[in-house]
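FW: tagging you since you asked about this chain on Friday. Here's the raw sequence from the shared folder, copied in full. Didn't touch anything.
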Amino acid sequence: MAKKDGYSEKDLENDADLQAEYAELAKRNLRGNGYEIHTTIDKKMYDAMQKATKAFAYYGPDRTFTVKDPDTGKMKETTEKVQTGSILIENSSGKILSFVGGRGYEDNNVNHAFKAKRSNGSTMKPLLVYAPAMQEGIIQPGSVIADYPKSVPGWEFGKPGNYGGGHYGIVSVREALAKSYNLPVAEIYSKILNKDPASKYLEKMGFTSLTEGDHAHPSLSIGSMDKGVSVEENVNAFATFGNNGKFKDAYMIEKITTKGGEVIYEHKSKAVDVFSPQTTYLMVDMMRDVLRNGTGVYANSQLKYRGVDWAGKTGTSQEYKDSWFVATNPNVTFGTWIGYKTPYPLNNAGMGLSYGQRNIKLWAELINSATEVNPELLAPSKNFQRPNGIVSRSYCAISGLLPSELCQKAGLVRSDLYNSKYVPSKVDDSLVSGGSMVMVNGRTVAPGPKTPSEFTTGNGLAFNAEFLKRKGYDKLSDLSILFPRTDREKWERISGVASSSGNAVENDGKAPNAPGSLAKSGGNLTWSKSSSQFVIGYRIYQATGPGNSFTQIGHTTATSFGIRGGNGRYYVKAVDYFGEESAASTQLLVGGTPKEEPETPMKNKAKKKVQPPNEPSNKEQEQQDERTDKNDHKDKVKEKEDDGGGKETKTPKTDAKNEDEEAE
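HL: got it, structure written out here
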């Protein structure tokens, strides 16, 4: 209308009164001139989804609280339901086929599909971090990241935390995405942040509310946003993965015609290239694992139409105030969000399902109801097609590099898909031959030249000191923090560091203190550990009868030893890293005492008592008993301190902590 009167869009933008005038004229025309508005909405799908939304029984409890009345200024009581928003988009065209704006307008009056903006939690990770980092050649699904407490640029030490507060050692990028670990994604994002991926990727995919701070803050990598994103924009961005890396802006108005059939508006869209076909396929394949064995695995049991090639991502915002699930298949992308209108934690609802499972169940029931209307479109039989340039390669799980013979020997060779442009080219050097290990003060270290071999373990492999130094792992006091939770026993068979540099044990020149409190428990000897710090194990000695010498019958790194009912006298000695043996513990008699054989008279000689070989003399035994009693007292004091004397360590609060649930 303005153009017909000779005005441009810029004229309207610069003149508020002119803008208001034509806005009012347009409203009158729309109401009275008989225009037909053709939408993309499938009415049957829409009705089916509204019905399923109303019938859903697992939103969580209503919340009653007090707020200030803006009119009176007085406090009043109000009740809010858990709200929801969802949207279904056709990948190839951007058509919005259906949506849910909330649980009834009378309860809400906010359209949560289009208008409300919330932090999107870990659904941000594929959009901003994993796919962009693959596009930039920084990572591939088989790349590995070490998840342990460490410094990441822009974060406090050891932050951001993972769900449950634990760490997972060296894991592949594929696993980090499927299980939604936070520290690995923060580290990857730190390597591409200088490329401003928020502009280069998110804004290309339709994010309109990013602030200057969002572009700079590392916490954007886990979905912490200044203003948030709408369900429509978040799901629309995911549809890029369903459309071979091309973004199509979602729309709902197909065209507007006059009552005479004249088209006065028709939607036109242009695809925007965001990701290469190779990056897109790898990202889709990684997100398949979210449903196969990751945080979205619950969806499989809830879907009515099985065998559909879904790939998706769960998301949880800070303090569990928002729960998301977005997934794409070769034809459509569908996402749901749940949360209170006034943000409040969703966890601990006491409904038998976690907050994440409740949202995934809602997602499944909505997509099931819509698929009943058009199964051919929403449940395609075809899968995402692998493009050229995707290859399968083996890699070493320790380094992510091409596997060496030693990595093969360790049983740590894995395989994954790669963009052929970014396959590993170097061979793994994380291991060297000939290694064995020994535990000293909880540290795994290489044995010294005098370390007794009976206390060492290993599979003939050790970590390469140069590799550890290059990766920054040489500063770790305990390498086992790098061992993942899967196949951990294979990692544990690898010795410590082939060269003891950086892990050296300094000799204090003292023999270790004897173990104390030797006793019999069932069929085992038990004792308290030596108080010396370099002890690596214990040797057990037995004398089977009076006058018999003590002989070594075994060794162990534990503080118990099975004697299978063997009668006799026993003592135990501690052995340290340098091969030094302690004095004997107090002796323990097990079983009855045999009668002493008659002594043969000695002619012309004074009788002399002979000490049996290897047995402590009476004087030595008295001195040893005195030392052991003191050590026993020290052990009891230390055990008491260890029992309750430790101070609780509090983890410092991070500036942003978006944590996904693990698969349940």
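FW: Confidence is low (pLDDT under 50) at residues 594-625, 627-664.
HL: agreed, and The chain has four domains: 1-31, 43-378, 431-492, 516-628.
FW: great, closing this out.
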